Amino acid sequence: MKMIDQLTQAHRELTDGTRKVVVLRRHYDAEVEDVWQACTDPDRLSRWFMPISGDLRLGGTYQLEGNAGGEILRCEPPSLLKVSWLFGPDPGFSEVEVRLAAKDGGTLFELTHTAEPPEEFWGQFGPGAVGVGWDLALLGLALHLAGGEKVEEASFHLTEEGRAYILGSTQAWGEAHRAAGAPAGHVAATVAATSAFYAPEEGS
Predict the structure, then answer these.
(1) Is pLDDT at 73 greater than 90 in this prediction?
(2) What is the pLDDT of residues 58-67, one digit of tens each?
(3) Residue 167 CB: number of other CB atoms within 10 A?
(4) Is residue 204 situated within a structural domain?
(5) Cα–Cα distance list, 184 to 82, 123, 170 (Å)
(6) What is the CATH number of the domain that holds 62?
(7) Which residues does the UniProt record annotate as the domain Activator of Hsp90 ATPase homologue 1/2-like C-terminal (predicted)?
(8) How far apart are the first and last CA of the chain?
(9) What is the pLDDT of residue 119?
(10) Which residues contact 70 (CB under 8 A, 6 or more apart)?
């Protein structure tokens, strides 16, 4: 599997209001039940995403190791999972919803992240701040479903293929940002900032 090809499998959307809504939609060549288990079983999640702990049931709470945590708001196997997505000392409103549906012999996967980020943070990075992270997660899921190895995000940008994937993702989110009405100059600045964060030049 060529990683860069996985980047083009996803459709990206942004709704830019007080609440920012980023949407990633793509097809996986795997049955809905398999994708659902990959997204909800703690052992499988740790193999492509992050280790998870908590009271993993409807109304319970979860914590991703070194990352977000929150409450499990909806859980309707094998088609809908919705959680609050809280990270940092003052996270504000943030929710993630995953919907799965059988389509074309596989699974249509749709992830929606709705949040109210600080204005200065959004102004600097735009949708790529969360979008690139989700692109990396969807790549990890694709590799997992195909029997591949987990993407190591800490060193991924140091590989030629990894750097190309990340920079392609920042550009794709820039296009979504522009389609949502952001000025071209602002988009270029946010793409540059996001690229520098996720794929810094060696030695920088």
Answers:
(1) yes
(2) 999 999 999 9
(3) 18
(4) no
(5) 33, 13, 14
(6) 3.30.530.20
(7) 29-139
(8) 30
(9) 93
(10) 61, 62, 83, 84, 85, 86, 94
d(CA 141, CA 201): 27
**What's the pLDDT tens digit per position in 145-161?**
999 888 887 889 999 99
- Contact at 8 Å (CB) between 45 and 181? no
Per the CB < 8 A criterion, the answer to whether 37 and 44 are in contact is yes
Can you read off the two tokens belonging to residue 178?
């522009």
Q: Which residues contact 194 (CB under 8 A, 6 or more apart)?
A: 125, 126, 128, 129, 132, 170, 173
H or E element in which residue 162 lies? helix 160-179
Judged against a pLDDT cut of 60, whether residue 204 lies above it is answered with no
**How many independent structural domains does the chain possess?**
1
Share the mean pLDDT of the chain.
Answer: 95
Domain range enclosing 144:
3-198
Distance CA 90, CA 82 (A): 21
Are the C-beta atoms of 2 and 47 separated by less than 8 Å? no
Backbone angles phi, psi at 15, to 5 degrees: -110, 120
- Supply the pLDDT for residue 44: 97
